[in-house]
Amino acid sequence: MTSDLRRQVAQLLVVRGSGHWSDGQRRYPRWELPNAKLHRLLDAGVGGVILLGGSAAELRLRTDQLRRWADGPLLLCADVEEGVGQRFEGASWLVPPLAVGRLHGRDPQRAAALAERYGRCTGRQARLLGLNWVLGPVCDVNNNPANPVINVRAWGEDPATAGALAAAFVRGCQGAGVLACAKHFPGHGDTSTDSHLELPLLPHSRARLEVVELPPFRAAIAAGVAAVMTAHLQLPALDPERPATLSAAVLEGLLRRDLGFSGLVVTDALVMEAIAGRHGPSEAAVLAFAAGADLILMPGDANAAIDGLVAALESGRLPMERLERSLGRRAAALARLGPAPLEPVDVALDGLVSAEEQALSRELLELSLELGGTPDTLPAATKALISTPVPLAPSPALPAGPGVNLIRLDTALTCPFLPAMAPALLRPTAAGYGACLLEGRSPSPWSRDPQAPLALERLPAGPVLLQLFVRGNPFRGSAGGDEPWPAALAQLLAAGRLAGLAIYGSPYLWEQLRPLVPAGIPAAFSPGQMPQAQALLLERLGLAAAALEGGFTD
């Protein structure tokens, strides 16, 4: 009995694996299981793997390998909220969802159509590479610009926008033959802390949740979303003791009874500090399952989680009916899927990015690109993009080098958008601007003068092209608004050294800095940070493609 029970329980775990083939290539070995352990767990019945890292070709080989190792049907998923290429090089990497959300206020029909195409692109490419579950859309309403973890991942800054576009994404994604997942229930948008690092507090009443946080989840559920992911949030109005992931009042009461959701409920990763800092892997899994979660995502120790759940079921702490219901929901979700890809790897990869998907990527980049100037003085070509994707007119040209290409980024160590051939590096270099990388956590370029925060004496001489890669991201702990860029910009202007400004990622930083840039200085914003976004933006700043640059203009 215990052996059979362990295999049943194991089906409800989703463990973390690398998209790379070998153990030595793992990017995050703290969380990504080595192959021998992953093989043992799948052979023992573990029913899901979340993957990160590697190329599209590696991912296809990897998913085939994992299916061979598994004892039964697998749920294979990834956090590909911005297209499969966000995590796996070679697939489509699309602009962050909030870029589409900002179009929605001007042209809601077009925005909804783009969101559905976005979902279809993500789902089709995921399926070709062997994934059957997309961990998106984000249904959080990003009504707090200082949110360090949701930010541009959200589909909207108001409930109506977020709901309409999340539902459109669900239709496109699941129409392509994979499962979608609405997250992070009941809403992580109005927080100023990151649940990867600590437990956020959402102090709102149930009435407020009905108005702001819940409508996008209702819309996704009405669109038939297969799964809902929990948020590691404290909501005293619903449960004064336990966070949403561990709260029956939230999962069984609010989500299942009040919102009528009958699909899979999956926890957010239990290794996140909001949960792991308070509960061990065994107890966290038991509490989440008791609260109403069906699937346990990334427990700190898979075997301990299985042991804890088995012991709780055998002792009667958890009723066997709960296990049967969760297994039934998992089986129903798998039954919605077609067969795993049968195309040979080379055929799948040759057809991975279609011409229509290339056009979608370009259209989204062009629609969301903004040039300098206040909203009332934007070029007519920029305004025309509201209804028609036409090329933007170039902005004033950068002065001739030599100069400084000052690039701000979170860290240079894990930076997929800035490979050696990135346009943000090569195009300014070709114009005589030498690269100088400024890491967000590094104090070296900063002085202690709040009026002149940049230590200009530490920079080479010449005009400065300032390129800021800033956005909210998990584990970062801020959305970038805590850095003194308005003062730095004023300092560069006062010294006569600001040659141009490029902002990638945060619309909030762009809105803060755009009015400070004089009309004669080129400035532009793209919500995308990937090389294709850099290429388009820098083209508008008059920087042509460099001879060594990769194919980043498709």
If you had to describe this structure to a student in words, what would you say it looks like?
There is one protein chain. The protein has 554 residues and is an alpha/beta fold. It folds into 2 domains: 10-347, Glycoside hydrolase, family 3, N-terminal domain (TIM Barrel), CATH 3.20.20; 369-540, Glycosyl hydrolase family 3 (Rossmann fold). It has helices spanning 2-10, 35-43, 56-69, 97-104, 108-128, 159-175, 206-211, 215-222, 248-258, 273-276, 281-291, 302-315, 320-335, 345-350, 355-368, 380-384, 423-430, 485-494, 507-513, 531-540; strands at residues 13-18, 48-52, 75-78, 133-134, 181-185, 227-230, 264-266, 296-297, 370-371, 403-409, 433-439, 464-470, 498-505, 523-526. The strands form 3 sheets. Strands 9-14-13-12-10-11 form a 6-stranded mixed β-sheet, with helices on both faces. A 5-stranded parallel β-sheet has the order 4-3-2-1-8. A 3-stranded parallel β-sheet has the order 5-6-7. The radius of gyration is 24 Å and the shape is globular. The chain starts with a helix and ends in a 14-residue tail after the last helix.
